[in-house]
Design a protein that fits this description.
Keywords: Repeat. The chain is α+β, with helices and mostly antiparallel strands. Helices cover 45% and strands 15% of the residues. Bound molecules: zinc ion. The site of zinc ion (ZN) has 8 residues, from helix 13.
């Protein structure tokens, strides 16, 4: 039972003629109801704002209205008719969008669209899921939203993972201020670019980590699309298609795919790169997103596996599977660098850092992990490559960095890096000596792109020789 003034207030706002109600307007009505009833604000919460907040929260909890108090952007709008929100979503999520959303001069003009532009944008929406702000205005025209209310509606869709906003760097085709992507409407297949940037076999001296969620029967509807929207918070660049996303973060790459298999659905998440800590960090963020999304479907059955990276890197298409709940929800213990866990090679020591996450914040013990991993990667290569094979790749330089230790700055200044550059790298990567070193070495390497590898190896050799790291060079040479 509502307190009498709240009941009066609810009646008043439900008669408010507009489709949505701004918080300012909600407050004005609230004050007038209180005045009419000669009710003191003090008897409620002290101030009108505070009292209104309490009332709106209560009405939201009972389902009379929708108001998201905890979000500073969303709280500016009150959906005093909750069904309006559903209608607004239906204006976009139409199964017959192609047929029913057609050009109309009046709406078009108000949304800043001529027919040609409209048709192009509609086509992009129906194939690539791209919704420009103009097309959105067109679809929502009859709700008569203020720009602020429309932005709130967009924020609400973002909050519920119904779409993601394309970063401005990707807004090439249009001059729109904002473009949203609704993965549900993607119809495209992976482009050739994807196969170039993510070849089927893991490139040499690249690390790959993967896990999968297997839904043996039907996968929950919307799971993959919502996951794809959430991914946007962890990445800088991406390419989307109907059943996948290839995304980029710093030098790491992320591949998310959905595949139908034996009547079920497999969602596979893989990361590739050379920075082990960053790779584990990304993989775990996505894993937690997926766990979190699963809460929306508490009864669904799903198997969660971590793929054995030892098998994956060996090119085995049927890698050993570990239970993800055990392996991904722990941190590699101190001083454990090798394990005999792969049932496909039960007697082999495999690098622990390939199957148990490393702590993203600390670099204690990173050196030995990298050294063990480099030895493993070197063992995969054929012997014909000769000296220094792979040393100039990002991971190879990471290995050199792991071996150098604290006196790395001597070596890189021999390679021509200036003191100021070294200090900047240190500032940008605090407490991460190995990262500092490998970034410095990459800088040196990238500056001489046009030179032959043998010249670079000679330079590195000289620098190691001058700084008493000759023994390291001898070891590298053996590999
Ligand atoms: Zn294995």
């Amino acid at each position: 039972p509502l307190p009498d003034p709240w009941w009066k207030y609810l009646q008043k706002i439900s008669k408010y003629p507009e489709k949505i109600l701004s918080l300012t307007e909600a407050l004005r009505i609230f004050k007038s109801v209180m005045n009419e009833l000669k009710q003191s604000m003090i008897s409620l919460e002290g101030s009108a704002d505070k009292s209104l907040e309490m009332v709106l929260k209560y009405l939201h909890a009972t389902g009379e209205i929708m108001w998201y108090a905890d979000n500073p952007k969303l709280q500016k709008i009150v959906f005093h008719h909750p069904e309006t929100l559903v209608e607004m979503l239906r204006a976009i999520f139409k199964h017959d969008f192609e047929k029913v959303v057609v050009f109309n001069e009046v709406f078009g003009q108000l949304a800043g669209l001529n027919q040609k532009k409209f048709e192009a944008m509609k086509e992009d929406f129906l194939t690539k899921g791209l919704m420009t702000l103009e097309l959105l205005n067109f679809c929502l025209y009859h709700f008569k939203l203020t720009p602020e209310a429309r932005d709130t509606f967009v924020d609400l869709m973002l909050k519920f993972d119904l779409c993601y906003e394309l970063p401005s760097s990707l807004l090439t085709n249009y001059t729109s201020a904002r473009i949203l992507r609704f993965p549900w409407f993607l119809r495209t297949e992976a482009s050739n670019e994807v196969f170039v940037k993510w070849p089927t076999k893991t490139p040499r001296n690249i690390i790959e980590l993967s896990f999968q969620f297997v839904f043996p029967s039907k996968s929950p509807p919307n799971f993959f699309e919502k996951l794809s929207c959430r991914l946007q918070t962890h990445v800088l660049k991406r390419e989307d298609w109907k059943n996948g996303v290839l995304a980029f973060m710093n030098k790491s790459r992320i591949l998310l795919t959905r595949e139908k298999k034996d009547g079920g659905t497999v969602i596979l998440v893989s990361v590739r790169g050379s920075d082990l800590q960053e790779l584990w960090g990304l993989l775990l963020k996505i894993y937690h997103d997926m766990k979190c999304l699963l809460l929306e479907w508490p009864l669904v059955h799903v198997e969660q596996n971590l793929l054995c990276s030892h098998c994956v890197l060996r090119g085995d298409n049927d890698p050993f599977l570990y239970p993800a709940e055990t392996y991904l929800e722990t941190i590699c213990p101190k001083n454990v660098y090798q394990l005999q866990t792969c049932q496909k090679s039960p007697d082999t020591n495999i690098p622990a850092c390939l199957i148990i996450p490393l702590d993203a914040a600390f670099q204690d013990g990173m050196g030995p992990h990298i050294i063990v991993l480099k030895e493993f990667l070197a063992s995969l290569e054929d012997m014909v490559d000769g000296m220094g094979s792979g040393i100039l790749t990002d991971f190879g330089l990471m290995y050199v960095a792991a071996r150098l230790g604290a006196e790395w700055s001597l070596v890189v200044s021999h390679l021509g890096l200036k003191q100021a550059e070294i200090e900047q790298i240190q500032l940008d990567n605090p407490y991460k000596t190995i990262n500092q070193t490998s970034i410095a070495l990459q800088k040196w390497r990238d500056r001489q792109k046009e030179r032959a590898d043998s010249t670079l190896l000679k330079q590195l050799f000289d620098a190691l020789d001058e700084t008493d790291y000759k023994s390291l060079w001898d070891e590298i040479e053996e590999k």
